[in-house]
Write a structure and sequence with these properties.
The complex is a heterodimer. By secondary structure, chain A is α/β, with parallel strands linked by helices. Chain A folds into 2 domains: 145 residues, 3-Layer(aba) Sandwich (Rossmann fold), CATH 3.40.50.300; 65 residues, no CATH class. Chain A contains 10 helices and 10 strands. Chain A has a 6-stranded mixed sheet with strand order 6-7-8-3-9-10, sandwiched between helices. Chain A has a 4-stranded antiparallel sheet with strand order 2-1-4-5, with helices on one face. In chain A, strand 9 and strand 10 form a beta hairpin. The two termini of chain A are 31 Å apart. The mean pLDDT of chain A is 89. By secondary structure, chain B is an all-alpha fold. Chain B has one domain: ABC transporter involved in vitamin B12 uptake, BtuC, CATH 1.10.3470. Chain B has 11 helices and 2 strands; from the N terminus they run H-H-H-H-E-E-H-H-H-H-H-H-H. A two-stranded antiparallel sheet of chain B has the order 1-2. In chain B, helix 2 crosses helix 8, helix 5 crosses helix 6 and helix 10 packs across helix 11. The chains are: A alpha/beta, B mainly alpha.
């Protein structure tokens, strides 16, 4: 397999304050990588840096192109869908309008309509709520909406920031099984940032462990999962 | 009774103009969270452009679309050249820039066309209907402003660009994450606000006459409408504009102490009252800011 996203020496800072100190990691085509680590390790910052939402340096190669100096909206237009921390829902728009926003960069109305059906098929709750203001949805529904909106882009790579945050365990299971389906059926690669390491290691094939802005460990998800020392030291479960 | 009907119609007719100005102000406020004090001067300048074309003998039906297009381009240009470089500068910097724009546009108009008051012909001609109850120009004003407002509503509700603009105004970070070019959406908002202002200027000029300070009080009424309806709600701004027009005319007619001379303070009184008792306006929503 070849790499869809390859990051080398990624640095990022908030103002003068350096947060990431030269990260190296990658996502295979159609693969799922996960970034694990405690609060403040720099997971969210890494995703923001990839999307050009903060100043960054280093090389970020996506599908053979250097996207290290591109603007956020241009990176998105290349097929990178970022589901941000806190979901980033357009709370004043309806559920359906949120989904239409997700497909804003695409032109074929017929394909968009078909994908809308597909997304409603995966997330039936959203169909029930289609005309409702997104701000009135429950937390779980908003997370579903955020993922569904990202899928409307027809992405090749999804960046997911704590998709399980604040959700009941049953909903987390449901959501991860949908992510698995999306990955297998649509061949969408994913980079998932999670604190809930147990669940995500079941889904991912590669894992990177982040601590205070540096990668301290990497390997296949199975290796990380089975390594008692790492689990105790970094993942806390 | 006839006086009341007449005043109501006049109120609705001028209220439509205030509604347009209020909407222009709110569109820009939603995009950049600052009040554009130069909105009225931009509209005044557009009206002068229309007057100049009329003076050159261009037919009226061509003057209006041409003015709208030129104003749209001017609005986009102001955003690109002046507002965008400001970025996240503090509120005071924005206010200073807006006052600067105000002064520049105002004196430029005076420099080119001088400060004498000029009559401006109505596109709808002279005369009146229903036994003098409503003038042709008032009918035209109501018809045009209603058309503009309905078209804008359809644009924002049912087109993709309209949806993109709403998304960009509501949550710029998320809008970028779905690939919306937020910067251009803001420029588009400025262009549209300038174009709406141009229509409002052309419609009100036959009543207040053309001169560089003609839009000063109109914009004040527009602000009052926007504040009354809520700065965060385009629908509210339109409603507020009409309300201000009606209140202004009825108060001027039926409260002798106010009369024609004290009409303008009504706008200021409204602004102060709304801000004291219901700062979000009638339709606005409370925006909670995290510190």
């Amino acid at each position: 397999m070849s790499k869809l996203l390859e990051v080398t020496g990624l640095h990022a800072s908030y103002g003068d304050f350096r947060v990431l100190h030269g990260l190296d990691f990658s996502v295979e085509k159609g693969g799922i990588s996960t970034l694990l680590g405690a609060n403040g390790a720099g997971k969210t910052t890494t995703l923001r840096a990839l999307c050009g939402m903060i100043k960054r340096s280093g090389t970020i190669r996506y599908d053979g192109n250097d996207i290290g100096s591109k603007a956020t909206e241009e990176i998105v237009r290349m097929g990178v869908a970022h589901v941000p921390e806190g979901r980033g829902t357009f709370t004043g728009l309806t559920t359906e309008e949120n989904l239409e926003c997700g497909a804003m960069t695409r032109s074929s109305r017929a394909e968009i309509a078909r994908d809308m059906e597909q997304v409603y098929h995966w997330f039936p709750r959203l169909r029930e709520r289609r005309a409702q203001q997104a701000g009135t949805l429950s937390g779980g529904e908003q997370q579903m909406l955020a993922i569904a909106r990202a899928l409307m882009l027809r992405p090749r790579l999804m960046l997911l920031d704590e998709p399980s945050f604040g959700l009941a365990p049953m909903i987390v299971q449901e959501m991860f099984s949908i992510l698995r389906k999306v990955n297998e059926e649509e061949d969408v690669a994913m980079l998932i940032v999670e604190q809930n390491a147990g669940v995500v290691l079941e889904l991912a094939d590669t894992a990177f462990v982040l601590e205070t802005g540096g990668i301290v460990m990497s390997g296949t998800a199975a290796e990380i999962r089975d390594n008692e020392t790492i689990r105790a030291a970094y993942l806390g479960y | 009774m006839e006086l009341l009907a007449q005043q109501l119609i006049t109120g609705i007719a001028t209220g439509g103009i205030y509604a347009c100005m209020a909407l222009a102000v709110v569109m820009i406020y939603q995009a950049i969270h600052h009040l554009n004090f130069a909105q009225g001067e931009m509209a005044m300048f557009s009206t002068f452009i229309a007057w100049q074309m009329l003076a050159w003998g261009v037919p009226y039906w061509l003057v209006i679309p041409l003015t709208v297009v030129v104003s749209f381009a001017g609005g986009v240009a102001i955003e690109r050249l002046v507002i965008r470089p400001l970025g996240d500068a503090p509120v005071l910097s924005h206010i200073v820039v807006f006052i600067g724009l105000f002064a520049i546009i105002n004196s430029l108009a005076g420099f080119i066309w001088d400060f004498t008051i000029k009559p401006f012909p109505s596109p709808f001609g002279e005369g009146s209907q229903f036994g003098g109850l409503i003038s042709n120009h008032q009918i035209g004003m109501i018809a045009v402003t209603m058309t503009v407002l309905v078209m804008l509503f359809l644009f924002f509700q049912y087109t993709r660009v309209g949806l993109a603009m709403r998304a960009a105004a509501e949550n710029p970070a998320s809008a970028r994450l779905v690939g919306i070019r937020v910067g251009w959406m803001i420029a588009l908002g400025w262009g549209m606000a300038a174009a709406i202002g141009a229509v409002a200027g052309i419609l009100i000029a036959p009543i207040v006459f053309l001169e560089p300070n003609m839009m000063l009080s109109i914009l004040l009424y527009g602000f009052a409408g926007a504040v009354l309806g809520g700065l965060t709600s385009p629908t509210g701004a339109v409603f507020g504009g009409f309300m201000v027009g009606i209140i202004e005319n009825l108060a001027g007619t039926y409260i002798p102490e106010i009369g024609g001379e004290l009409k303008l303070p009504i706008a200021l009184f409204l602004i102060v009252t709304v801000l004291v008792f219901k700062p979000t306006g009638l339709f606005g929503r409370t925006v909670v800011q995290r510190v």
